[in-house]
Amino acid sequence: MDRLIINGGVRLSGEIRIAGAKNSALPILAATLLTDDLVTVCNLPHLYDITTMLELLGCMGVQPVIDEKLNVEVDSSTIAHFSAPYELVKTMRASILVLGPLLTHHGCAEVALPGGCAIGSRPVNLHISALEAMGAKIIVEDGYIKASVEGRLTGNQIFMDMVTVTGTENVMMAATLAKGKTVIENAAREPEVVDLASCLIEMGAKITGQGTDTITIEGVERLHGCKYSVMPDRIETGTYLIAAAATRGNIKVKDTRPDILDSVLSKLEQAGAKIKVGPDWIALDMHGERPKSVSLRTAPYPAFPTDMQAQFTALNCIAEGTGAITETVFENRFMHVHEMNRMGASIKVEGNTVIVEGVEALFGAPVMATDLRASASLIIAGLVSEHETSVDRIYHIDRGYECIEEKLQLLGARIRRVPA
Ligand code: EPU
């Protein structure tokens, strides 16, 4: 298994480009199953999860084609199987996103039931109950969600008990081809939901209210092909900005969207960063100063994202003062904490809050990545450590960060990948 070796102590400086958003690209690729026409998806990030989604389409008989500009063309008219096998679902939970499109367009779907993962139990009961309320017959048997509908799904008033991102996306996709009107209440407001809605509208869907907690979808008879460019990745953007702040650096990230990062930019300013933004770039300068600790609480958008919690924990490790970080979205997203303490951090876990007392320096150690964002946080910890850090199990990072060591090298970091 590959490892990343980091020799910390360098202040990050320079410019990098941000890739397309993983969590937009995955539902948009699933949405290509809603039409028999050609859909071209541009600005896809080069990530392991994207490859897995393309593989999943492939195993259903859909052959995505990569064109000369690295855009992906999907013609799903050749679909032959309506099933997402366990071998793929176990490596990527977002495979559940094919459930809604398959069911509404083809009347049947079998998707392996995703299990728990390193950050929580992550059930999909709300996806299932919403589709049932739209007329689907669903049984869970032999580890699979087996869904079917006679004729078309029927629009309904759906109240989501919890704010769920992929749940909202699944129901929104299913509703595009349902009979009549669907109203999703307590919908996720995440920018990735809005990006998916924009793509669906390009395909002919009738959707309003995306970006608010009530999304209304008027079902149509059919959707058509389109060409759609995935929005920039806000979590990748935030991760590099936090890395720069932690190392007292000065960087500019380009091809991004400052307007969807308010909660993160405001925490970085509290940490002492000077931030400037343009239409598609963000510049951060610490003027060489040590960051100040911040306290925060994760919650659905527009509040502070759970996907950036671990990275801020890393920043707090070496910041001035003490910060409290509360995780409210997932029940077990503190696996990185124990690795950071092995690097000399002073972190206490109290229920769903971690209290981080900033220390002057961390010390490199061999550490193990447990999930995608935890891996990113351990890399940030390595960047602010004395001596060498080796991060093991980095397949997690390749699921969600495109060429991370190359981008960090561009910013001056001493980081290299060591093949197994
Ligand atoms: N939940 C339920 N029942 C459901 C669905 C969700 O109880 O049927 C609970 C979950 O267990 C969790 C909460 O609701 O406690 C929110 O989970 P959500 O469904 O919103 O998460 P998700 O859709 O599975 C997406 C992202 C995650 C991100 C979360 C929260 C994708 C592909 N994944 O997951 O991204 O953390 O929303 O914003 O969009 C990552 O990129 O590293 C990542 C984990």
What does the secondary structure layout of this molecule look like, with pairings?
Elements: E1 3-7, E2 13-17, H1 22-31, E3 38-42, H2 48-59, E4 65-66, E5 72-75, E6 83-84, H3 86-89, H4 99-106, E7 108-112, H5 125-133, E8 137-141, E9 144-148, E10 157-159, H6 165-176, E11 181-185, H7 191-202, E12 206-208, E13 214-218, E14 226-229, H8 234-246, E15 250-254, H9 262-270, E16 274-277, E17 281-285, E18 296-297, H10 309-317, E19 322-326, H11 335-342, E20 346-350, E21 353-357, E22 362-363, E23 366-368, H12 372-383, E24 385-386, E25 388-392, H13 395-398, H14 404-410, E26 414-418
Parallel strand pairs: 2-15, 3-14, 6-7, 10-11, 18-19, 22-24, 23-25
Antiparallel strand pairs: 1-25, 1-26, 3-5, 4-5, 7-9, 8-9, 11-13, 12-13, 15-17, 16-17, 19-21, 20-21
Helix pairs in contact: 1-2, 1-7, 4-6, 5-6, 6-7, 8-10, 8-12, 10-12, 11-12
The chain binds uridine-diphosphate-2(N-acetylglucosaminyl) butyric acid.
Uridine-diphosphate-2(N-acetylglucosaminyl) butyric acid binds next to helix 1, helix 5, helix 6 and helix 12.
Query: How many H/I helical runs?
Result: 14
* Major sheet summary line: 4 strands, mixed
Question: Helices and strands: which structural class?
Answer: alpha/beta
Rg, alpha carbons: 21 Å
The low-pLDDT segments are: none
Strand residues, percent: 25-35%
Mean pLDDT: 96
Overall geometry comes to: elongated
| N-C termini distance | 5 Å
User: How are the strands of the biggest sheet laid out side by side?
Assistant: 23-25-1-26
Number of strands: 26
- Distinct ligands: uridine-diphosphate-2(N-acetylglucosaminyl) butyric acid
Q: Helical amount among residues, as a percent range?
A: 25-40%
